[in-house]
Amino acid sequence: MSLNSTLTCLLLIALCPVARAQEGNKLSEQEMSLKLGDRLQISTSLGVTGPLLSERTTRINLNLGYNRPNWGLRGGLRRTGEDFAPFDTWIGISQLLPRNSQDVSLAGYLSLTPNLKVIGAATRGDSLPGGSFDFTNLSTRLEYRFNSNIYGLVGFDNLNIELMSGSLLRRQWATLGFGMDMGQGNMFKLLLQYGELGGSSTFSNQPANRGHVITGQISVKF
């Protein structure tokens, strides 16, 4: 089978479940990835909450990654529609970003020891279509593996949203977590996060709102 045929088949497999999920505007998000050799990987995801490929209800994400045994880099492009709700309860690398926006990102990891890894990401974007705000998101995380399946993590995320009026919104989160790989692409995470939401404007500083959340995540791939 040729590369073009493989891509076409994978795209059809990824889009068919999305199309079936449009009744009742249910949220569906599908992923597709293609490995080119042992080190280069292209991945895409398509999320919809309404009519397929409508700009208001679609999130499209494209990534290109390069991996070595001890380090790796990934660049990404993303476009999030106005009606797509991106407000994730838990916050991971480059997760909590404004809706109705487009952005570019660069992420990477470095293994400091066989068990200790540092992960970082930077994202820069703006709103659609009028450009009423810009935003930057910086994230970092330390991950320690107790064995091949169980690991702990500590991380920090900082999201700044700058409005054209001069106001600045800031979201900051610190994360402490536990994860377990269950094989075949399946995983479980338990996260404790403490966050702060604040901001400033030309005339005043907004008081910060603080809080914490405990959440779990289970991922099962078929």
> Tell me, what's the shape?
globular
Q: Low-confidence spans: pLDDT under 50, at least 5 residues?
A: 1-24, 86-95
Total domain modules: 2
State the distance separating the first and last CA atoms.
23 Å
The major pleated sheet works out as:
11 strands, antiparallel
Helix content: under 10%
Give the number of DSSP strands: 11
Structural class: mainly beta
Q: How confident is the prediction overall: mean pLDDT?
A: 76
Cα-atom radius of gyration = 19 Å
Strand order of the largest sheet: 1-2-3-4-5-6-7-8-9-10-11
Share in β-strands: over 45%
Query: What's the SSE pattern?
Result: HEEEEEEEEEEE
Task: Work out the oligomeric state of the chains in this entry.
Answer: single chain
Number of helices: 1
Structure description:
- This protein has two domains: 1-66, no CATH class; 86-222, no CATH class.
- The model is unreliable at 1-24 and 86-95 (pLDDT under 50).
- The chain has one helix at 3-20, and strands at 28-36, 40-48, 58-67, 71-80, 101-111, 116-127, 133-145, 150-163, 168-183, 186-200, 205-219.
- An eleven-stranded antiparallel beta sheet has the order 1-2-3-4-5-6-7-8-9-10-11, with helices on one face.
- Strand 7 and strand 8 form a beta hairpin.
- It is mostly beta strands and 222 residues long.
